[in-house]
Amino acid sequence: MLCYDEHSTILFDAHKKGEHSFFSLARHRERDHCVGICMAGTVCLTFDFDALSLWINRRQTSPASLSRGEFGAVAVPRILHLLNMYRIQSTWFIPGHTIETYRSHCEQVVEAGHEIGLHGYLHENVG
Ligand SMILES: [Zn+2]
């Protein structure tokens, strides 16, 4: 049986070794699970660390909305740990308000070597 978790493990292992593997996964006769082709290649990972800025910009400043924004700060160390474990570089879009509010979190992102993308000061709609 090859399922999603096993696919991910195989692909992450190939990535850690710097390999670009291409393999097909045939249906196991006795088990009825994933059939498909998986390729370890290039994937661009981006994260929006908007925190409170998104909700403030939308004028949704109820405790419920802001708590969703605050949870972003809880997720940052977890994501950085996972990216570091698999030696994956990524791009983080972080508004200026978030950088001021969660400075140490943002410094950890930079220190880990990830790219920072422009995301306005308060998640403004630039379109
Ligand atoms: Zn965003």
Features:
127 residues; 3-stranded parallel β-sheet; binds zinc ion
Question: Can you walk me through this structure?
Answer:
- This protein has helices at 4-16, 53-57, 63-85, 96-101, 103-111, and strands spanning 22-25, 36-39, 46-48, 91-93, 115-117.
- It is an alpha/beta fold.
- The protein has 2 domains: 4-39, no CATH class; 46-118, no CATH class.
- It is elongated.
- The structure holds zinc ion (ZN).
- Zinc ion binds next to loops.
Describe the SSE topology.
Layout: H1 4-16, E1 22-25, E2 36-39, E3 46-48, H2 53-57, H3 63-85, E4 91-93, H4 96-101, H5 103-111, E5 115-117
Parallel strand pairs: 3-4, 4-5
Antiparallel strand pairs: 1-2
The structure holds zinc ion.
What profile does the largest beta sheet have? 3 strands, parallel
Bound molecule types: zinc ion
Annotation field: number of helices: 5
Strand order of the largest sheet: 3-4-5
Structural class by secondary-structure content: alpha/beta
Oligomerization state: single chain
Report the count of strand segments: 5
Structural domain count: 2
Termini, distance in Å?
47 Å
Helix content: 40-55%
Q: Overall mean pLDDT score? A: 81
Beta-strand share of residues: 5-15%
Overall 3D geometry? Answer: elongated
> Order of SSEs, N→C?
HEEEHHEHHE
Q: What are the segments in which pLDDT stays under 50 over at least 5 consecutive residues?
A: 22-28, 32-37
What is the rounded Rg? 19 Å
